[in-house]
Design a protein that fits this description.
single chain, mainly alpha, Multidrug-efflux Transporter Regulator, Chain: A, Domain 2, 3-stranded antiparallel sheet, 8 helices, 6% strand, globular
Length: 153
């Protein structure tokens, strides 16, 4: 049996060990709707794609100092956050983005190196014009005057 990146296969304990976080941290992130593990017989099961998302969340909290509200605001700007195994596509519309997210250091698509080639022509961005509020949030996220607090342990 071959596991796909979407197949829930890892328990909360395994994921916590891989991320070097306490299992309760994962539960907190789930309560904040940052990850959606599958539940089977009362147990959380995570996929390889969930692990990638969780690594990015940990990066944002530990390396960038974002709190959970900041993480949520940032991942909400990624229309592809919940897409599993994004198949990519061709970026044909010039109004979609000025820079594709996989080229921007510190972004989810940039950090997931094994998927970066698929994100480079993301169909999500091709098929969806960026709304004014998303553009404003993206601009605000690059503003050095915006302060963020350290994620509580």
């Amino acid at each position: 049996m071959i596991l796909s990146d979407d197949m829930p296969a890892y328990t909360i304990g395994v994921i916590a060990d891989l991320l070097r976080v306490h299992p309760e941290t994962l539960r907190i992130w789930e309560r904040h709707k940052l990850v959606r593990p599958v539940r089977r017989k009362g147990h959380r099961l995570y996929s390889a794609n969930d692990l990638r998302r969780l690594r990015f969340i940990r990066y944002l909290t530990e390396q960038k100092g974002l709190n959970l509200a900041g993480v949520r605001a940032l991942v909400d700007m990624y229309p592809c956050w919940w897409l599993d195994n994004c198949p990519g596509g061709t970026l044909a519309q010039p109004n979609v983005r000025t820079r594709v997210c996989w080229k921007e250091d510190g972004t989810y698509c940039h950090m997931v190196l094994d998927k970066a080639d698929l994100c480079s022509g993301c169909r999500v961005y091709e098929n969806q014009a960026r709304c004014a509020s998303c553009s404003r949030l993206e601009k605000d996220s690059r503003n050095p005057n915006i302060s963020v607090s350290k994620f509580p342990d």
